[in-house]
C-alpha cells in the first residue's frame, strides 16, 4: 500500500507545473484522473508527445468534452466525489465550465481545490497567461542566473515549473492534514510568479538591507569570497560540436582546499604567487586564475580531473550530460533511478523514466504505469467514482461528450 492510497484527485492540469505536482501524488498512490479531450490533445498535450509522456504517468485518463453540457454535468458529479481538484489554467477557466470553487465547495465541503495559475488570484496581472521563460524573466530568475554582460540568457529549462509543481504537491499534503484536523476542505491559491520571486531571498535582503541591486554573476558567488568556483573545459570531446564539450566544476571553499588543489595540479609556478595565498587575493584575480586552471584542465579527461580532486579533498564534479547520467553514472546505476516502463507506448514504443526520488520504508512507491491515451480509462473511472455502467459510458463516447 502506497502512502496516498484512497485519495481521489481530479486533474485538469496541463504542460508541466501542474502535471508534475499530480505525478508526484500518483507516484505515491493517489488515484489521479487526468481530464483531457480529443480536441485538446494536440501538440504538447498530445498523449504521444514525449513531454506529455514524461509528466503524466501513474494517472488514469478520462475524456470530457467540456463544451458539452453532458460533460459538464459529469464533471460536476466527479468534483463532488474528489478529495482534490487541481488546475493550472489561467484564472477563470473552471468557472466558465461551471466547476469553479464557489460551486464545488457547496457540492463538496471537504474538497481541496488548488489553482496554480501564473500570477494567482487578484492583482493587475492575474489574467496573464504565462510560460516558463516569462515567469523566469518577470520573477528575476533570468537576470540573476545570467552571466555578466548577458542579462538576457539566464536559466534555460523550466525550473520554475518544477518548483511550482513541488509547491503544489506540498500544499495538497498540508491541506489533507488540515482536513483531518478540521473536517473541512479549502481553496489553495498558488502563484507561480511568487514561487520564482521566493528564490531571490538573498538578493532581496541585500537590496532592502544594503541598497545593493543584485547583478548576474554566472558561476561566481555573489556574497562569499570563494575561488576557484567555476566550470573548466576538459579534453575528450567526441567532436567539435558544442554539445560534445566536456567540462568539470571545481570549488575551493578554503585556503586548505586551495593548497590541496595546487598539489593536484603539480604545484605549477604560477600557483605559488602570493596573490593566490588567500581567498581575497584569488577572488581579486579570479579571471586570470580561471584562465590558468582552464589551461590545465583542458589537457585532461573530465572524470580524471574529478577523481584526482576528490581524492585530495577538493570538491569537484563532472558536468554530466544525458549520456553520462543514463550510461556512465555509477550512483544512478546503483540505485536503479532510471527505469524502463514495462508497458510499451503504442506510438513511442519503449519509454523510459525516472523513479520517485523518495524511498518509503513501510509503504514503498514502486508502481509505475505509462501514460494513458485520451479516454482510455473512461469506463473504469466513471464506474469507480460515479457507479456508471458500461452502456452509459459507451453511449457517452458515441455521442461525443466522453471524447
In short:
The protein is of the alpha/beta class and 403 residues long.
Could you please describe the fold and organization of this structure?
The chain has helices at residues 17-27, 50-55, 69-81, 93-96, 101-107, 132-139, 141-144, 159-182, 192-198, 201-210, 255-264, 279-284, 286-297, 302-311, 322-328, 330-335, 378-386, 390-399, and strands at residues 8-11, 31-36, 60-63, 84-87, 112-115, 186-189, 229-234, 246-251, 316-318, 338-340, 352-354. It has a six-stranded parallel sheet, sandwiched between helices. Strands 7-8-9 form a three-stranded antiparallel sheet, covered by helices on one side. Strands 10-11 form a two-stranded antiparallel sheet. The two termini are 32 Å apart. Helix content is 41%, strand content 12%. With 403 residues, the protein is of the alpha/beta class. It contains 18 helices and eleven strands. The protein folds into two domains: 8-198 and 337-399, Rossmann fold; 229-319, formyl-coa transferase, domain 3. The longest helix has 24 residues, at 159-182.
Report the end-to-end length measured between terminal Cα atoms. 32 Å
- How would a crystallographer describe the biggest sheet? 6 strands, parallel
Report helical residue fraction.
40-55%
H/E topology pattern: EHEHEHEHHEHHHEHHEEHHHHEHHEEHH
How many distinct folded domains? Answer: 2
Strand content: 5-15%
Helical stretch tally: 18
Gross geometry: elongated
CATH class of the largest domain: Alpha Beta
Briefly note the CATH topology name of the largest domain. Answer: Rossmann fold
Ranges with pLDDT <50 over ≥5 residues?
none
Could you state the CATH homologous superfamily of the largest domain?
Crotonobetainyl-coa:carnitine coa-transferase, domain 1
Can you list the strand order of the major beta sheet? Answer: 3-2-1-4-5-6
Average pLDDT number: 95
The oligomeric status of these chains comes to single chain
Amino acid at each position: 500500500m502506497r502512502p496516498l492510497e484512497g485519495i481521489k484527485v481530479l486533474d485538469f492540469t496541463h504542460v508541466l507545473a501542474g502535471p508534475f505536482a499530480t505525478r508526484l501524488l500518483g507516484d505515491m498512490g493517489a488515484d489521479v484522473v487526468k481530464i483531457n479531450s480529443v480536441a485538446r490533445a494536440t501538440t504538447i498535450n498530445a498523449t504521444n508527445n514525449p513531454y506529455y509522456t514524461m509528466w503524466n504517468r501513474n494517472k488514469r485518463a478520462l475524456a470530457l468534452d467540456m463544451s458539452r453540457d453532458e460533460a459538464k454535468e459529469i464533471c460536476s458529479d466527479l468534483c463532488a466525489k474528489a478529495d482534490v481538484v487541481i488546475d493550472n489554467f489561467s484564472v477563470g477557466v473552471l468557472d466558465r465550465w461551471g466547476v469553479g470553487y464557489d460551486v464545488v465547495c457547496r457540492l463538496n465541503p471537504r474538497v481541496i481545490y488548488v489553482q496554480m495559475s501564473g500570477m494567482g488570484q487578484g492583482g493587475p496581472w492575474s489574467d496573464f497567461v504565462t510560460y516558463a521563460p516569462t515567469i523566469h524573466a518577470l520573477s528575476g530568475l533570468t537576470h540573476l542566473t545570467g552571466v555578466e554582460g548577458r542579462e538576457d540568457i539566464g536559466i534555460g529549462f523550466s525550473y520554475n515549473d518544477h518548483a511550482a509543481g513541488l509547491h503544489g504537491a506540498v500544499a495538497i499534503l498540508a491541506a489533507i492534514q488540515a482536513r483531518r484536523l478540521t473536517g473541512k476542505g479549502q481553496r489553495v491559491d498558488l502563484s507561480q510568479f511568487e514561487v520564482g520571486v521566493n528564490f531571490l531571498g538573498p538578493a532581496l535582503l541585500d537590496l532592502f538591507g544594503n541598497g545593493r541591486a543584485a547583478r548576474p554573476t554566472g558561476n561566481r558567488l555573489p556574497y562569499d569570497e570563494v575561488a576557484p568556483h567555476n566550470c573548466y573545459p576538459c579534453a575528450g570531446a567526441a567532436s567539435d560540436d558544442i554539445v560534445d564539450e566536456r567540462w568539470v566544476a571545481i570549488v575551493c571553499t578554503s585556503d586548505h582546499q586551495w593548497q590541496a588543489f595546487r598539489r593536484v595540479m603539480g604545484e605549477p609556478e604560477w600557483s605559488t604567487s602570493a596573490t593566490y595565498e588567500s581567498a581575497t587575493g584569488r577572488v581579486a584575480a579570479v579571471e586570470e586564475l580561471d584562465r590558468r586552471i582552464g589551461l590545465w584542465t583542458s589537457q585532461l579527461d573530465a572524470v580524471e580531473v574529478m577523481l584526482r580532486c576528490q581524492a585530495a579533498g577538493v570538491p569537484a564534479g563532472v558536468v554530466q550530460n544525458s549520456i553520462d547520467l543514463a550510461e556512465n553514472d555509477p550512483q544512478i546505476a546503483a540505485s536503479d533511478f532510471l527505469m524502463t516502463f514495462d508497458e510499451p507506448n503504442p506510438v513511442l514504443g519503449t519509454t523510459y523514466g525516472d523513479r520517485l526520488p523518495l524511498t518509503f520504508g513501510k509503504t514503498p512507491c514502486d508502481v509505475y504505469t505509462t501514460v494513458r491515451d485520451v479516454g482510455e480509462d473512461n469506463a473504469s473511472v466513471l464506474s469507480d467514482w460515479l457507479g456508471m455502467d458500461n452502456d452509459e459510458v459507451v453511449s457517452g463516447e458515441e455521442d461525443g461528450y466522453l471524447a
